[in-house]
Write a structure and sequence with these properties.
It holds the Pfam family 6PGD. By secondary structure, the chain is of the alpha/beta class. The chain contains 27 helices and 14 strands. It starts with a helix and ends in a 22-residue tail after the last helix.
Length: about 650
């Protein structure tokens, strides 16, 4: 296959993954204010390295100051840039405390030019008289007291960070710094420290935001969750199990991210929050809520002046920690408030843009996340079917299948799910493959089923998604399946794998994946039409290129395909038509051969049937219409009459 769809290999797992940054506390002020002494004491207390900016001066600067000449901005520029680069290194390691005069705002801007989110500013303030007295008592230091006035003249104090009066004992100064860092109003709060909540909270901290966290306290079940989270992080989040204190710790207008179980728990938290909130506060539901629930909640809170954002978040625990894909909908004004936080923690696409974008009003964000999960269900089942076919009907070992899947990854078909499936096939427990020890009984949490229900509501066929959901449901009937296998005692065929069938499987896999994605986008398109949402499908595909579970080479291509064809069905785009024209025979051959060998291929079959029907000018539905008219007088239309005119026949009078 030579089409562009098959040749783009932009996706690779781990590209542009954000590093977790640790805070670098910059203690600044004029010379003689105690930056080194206080900075080293603070570093010791926090358990992080201490650095003195003076140690990074080039020799030329040191010699100039030793002769009594002050440095100019030209002298300082390379020194400050070198410090900025080191700050980036320290923040990606343990964090640090840096003592640096940083007298001017322009100097601080250079220091913050690489990782601004990591820096916490601490200003040591004191009178000229106090510092002059201290300067006179210093020995063997290149900075003379006569230069002090020039420092005060150059000093530009700003509001960022905290300031501490130096006219007190060093221990008291360090304690005051710690206290003020804790007492600063938090910029954002997280409710719920389960797996996803804890990872997102850690991600928020890594971007340098002041954070408060809340988790309920239930004796014997959930004890000291918030307290323990605070103790695990040196960048000092505030932790609460009292909701009113948590809300009071947030700067206004408040931004609160709820990470609680979808359903009634969300409403309980909202009811508890409402008396504590003020107009224009923003509440984000980051769980997998049903989009209709989000629509109802957004309308309810809007009447009270509260901004409500329903944000789908995909990426699992690792994605939440390093950068997920985020799909916020609901209040547009709410997104304007919370967008900077969500965009900062989101994964970044190949151009460095956040994989987060406002979707549309109402429950649009959670609807798009629901469809994402529906596509995910089918993609997972698709790979599971192909594994099963290769393993038990074509006689391949897990190692051999790993090699096959790995080769597909390097052939412009890479995806996160393909990658992890290949990895799973290498995992052993002793001498045995772990996959062989896992019970073949799967469940579904609701979002896959929701997609199927929504498809019925909007009249859109979601064959691959619904079949994936039904296959999970059937797998849950494990005991009954065991009995059935004994009753029917069927045998199945096994043949030796040859390169041609592996090549056909690769083409069938990609064709089925294309059909599955087309089905998902068609569902979103119809929902957008009926709900008056303005969905940008190129943008949705873009935010699904990193961070989320269904990120793939294909998704990179869809971003481009939809740029100028937002309203065109995916299966009608020329690049897709070219690929499917070449692979439809492989898809149908694999399905027929697999079924003939008694290998169940539900999603591959669903994709093949969908594509065959979609590309057929004439379907079998004329017989359905005749049947309905026969037994229920439902009427029908005729191909030889004007559309919209309906007929009824007395079928018994032949």
């Amino acid at each position: 296959m030579n089409s562009y769809l098959e040749s783009n290999s932009a996706f690779r797992q781990g590209e542009n993954r954000d590093m977790i940054t640790k805070p670098v506390f910059i203690v600044y002020g004029v010379s003689g204010s105690g930056k080194t002494t206080i900075g080293s004491a603070l570093a010791k207390k926090m358990g992080v390295p201490f650095y003195d900016a003076d140690d990074f001066h080039p020799e030329s600067n040191i010699q100039k100051m030793a002769k009594g000449f002050p440095l100019n901005d030209t002298d300082r520029a390379p020194w400050l840039q070198d410090l900025a680069n080191n700050i980036s290194k320290w923040s990606s390691d343990q964090g640090a405390v840096l003592a640096c005069s940083a007298l001017k705002v322009s100097y601080r801007n250079i220091l913050a030019s690489v990782v601004p989110e990591a820096i916490k500013w601490i200003f040591l303030k004191g009178s000229y008289e106090l510092i002059f007295e201290r300067m006179q008592s210093r020995k063997d230091h290149f900075f003379t007291s006569e230069m002090l006035q020039s420092q005060f003249d150059a000093l530009e104090v700003w509001k960022d960070g905290i300031s501490v009066d130096i006219d007190q004992e060093i221990q008291r100064i360090v304690e005051e710094i710690e206290s003020k860092l804790k007492m600063q109003k938090s910029e954002i709060g997280v409710i719920g420290l389960g797996v996803m909540g804890k990872s997102l909270a850690t991600n928020i901290l890594s971007k340098g935001f002041r954070l408060s966290v809340f988790n309920r306290h239930l004796a014997g079940k959930e004890e000291d969750i918030a307290k323990n989270f605070v103790s695990e992080h040196s960048n000092i989040p505030q932790g609460f199990d009292d909701l009113s204190l948590f809300v009071a710790s947030l700067a206004q207008p408040r931004t609160i991210l709820m990470m609680v179980n979808a359903g009634p728990a969300v409403d309980v938290v909202i009811e508890q929050l409402l008396p504590l909130l003020d107009e224009n506060d923003c509440v984000i539901d980051g769980g997998n809520s049903h989009y209709k629930d989000t629509l109802t909640r957004e309308a309810k809170l809007r009447k009270k002046g509260i901004l409500y954002v329903g944000a789908g978040i995909s990426g699992g625990e690792e994605g939440a920690l390093y950068g997920p894909s985020i799909m916020p909908g609901g209040s547009k004004k709410g997104y304007e408030n919370c967008g900077p936080f969500l965009e900062a923690i989101a994964a970044k696409d190949e151009k460095g843009n956040p994989c987060c974008s406002y979707i549309s009003p109402d429950g649009a964000g959670h609807f798009v996340k629901m469809v994402h999960n529906g596509i995910e269900y089918a993609e997972m089942q698709l790979l599971a079917e192909i594994y099963h076919f290769l393993r038990f009907h074509l006689g391949n070992t897990p190692d051999a299948i790993h090699e096959i899947f790995t080769s597909w990854r390097s052939n412009s078909k890479d995806s996160y799910l393909l990658e992890i499936t290949a990895d799973i096939l290498q995992k052993k427990e002793g001498e045995d493959f772990l996959i062989d020890k896992i019970l073949d009984k799967a469940g579904q949490k609701g979002t896959g089923g929701w997609s199927t229900q929504a498809a019925l509501t909007y009249g859109i066929p979601v064959s691959t998604i619904s079949e994936a959901v039904m296959t999970r449901c059937l797998s849950a009937k494990k005991e009954e399946r065991i009995e059935a296998s004994k009753v029917y005692a069927r045998s199945f065929s096994t043949v030796k794998t040859d390169p041609s069938i592996v090549e056909m499987l690769e083409q069938a896999y990609y064709a089925a994946s294309l059909v599955n994605h087309a089905i998902g986008f068609d569902l979103m398109k119809q929902a957008a039409k009926e709900n008056k949402w303005e969905l940008n499908f190129s943008e949705i595909a873009r935010i699904w290129t990193r961070g989320c579970i269904i990120r793939s080479d294909l998704m990179e291509n869809l971003t481009l395909f939809f740029e100028d064809s937002n309203n065109t069905p995916l299966l009608m785009l020329s690049e897709v038509v070219e690929t499917l024209d070449k692979s439809i025979d492989a898809l149908t051959t694999v399905v027929s051969r697999g079924i003939g060998m008694k290998c169940p291929l539900p999603v591959l079959s669903a994709a093949a049937n969908y594509l065959l029907n979609y590309t057929s000018e004439t379907m079998s539905a004329n017989m359905l219409q005749a049947q309905r008219d026969y037994f229920g007088a439902h009427t029908y239309q005729r191909v030889d009459k004007e559309e919209g005119v309906y007929f009824h026949t007395d079928w018994k009078n032949i």
